[in-house]
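re the bet — no i am not wrong, look at it urself. input seq straight from the record:
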Amino acid sequence: TLDGIEYTRFRFAARLVPRKAGTLAVLPAKVVARLKTGIGRDGFGFPVPQTSLFSAEDQARTLEIRALPLADRPPSFANAVGAAFAIEAHADRTVVRVGDPIELDVRIRSPANLNGLILPSLDAPGGLPADKFAVPEQTPTGELVVDDANGNKEKSFHVTVRVRSARVSEIPSLPFSFFNPKTGAYQTVYSQPIALSVKGS
């Protein structure tokens, strides 16, 4: 209620992802609606609603888009931006021979939007050593497995890796880095290592 008049408020959400740094001028948001204003009569005397066209306009705004800092950017950073992320990894088998494929299910959880999230290279520094594991060259396409109204979001990536050496005893912790806009710094979280029993080829 505003100045003695009762209003019904509607909210329209639009998600924008900036592609480059700079200043963005946002035009005023507008809404147009045909609303019921009363009751009239048609040619036969039956009651019919009367409507009128209404419009409202917001003010213009300016957004300042800052570039992500290059300093201290971790090798395991791809494009994740948010205040909190978690990563976990699961293997379809833990007893393998050298060269056997291992299907990894890597899951990323966060309250942030995960639609455009990509998985960093697993063989990046701090990840799977190239002399012990073979990983695919192409980044896998993730799949949203949870995205509900409670803010729970989870994205799953399926990756096939192969063990190169019988000396491997585990899939080490996988790093996942993100930029936290609240702290203005990069942060890295890690999955739990997965023990392996590897035999010769």
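see?? The chain is about 0% helix and 45% strand. told u. also The first strand starts at residue 22 and ends at 26. so pay up
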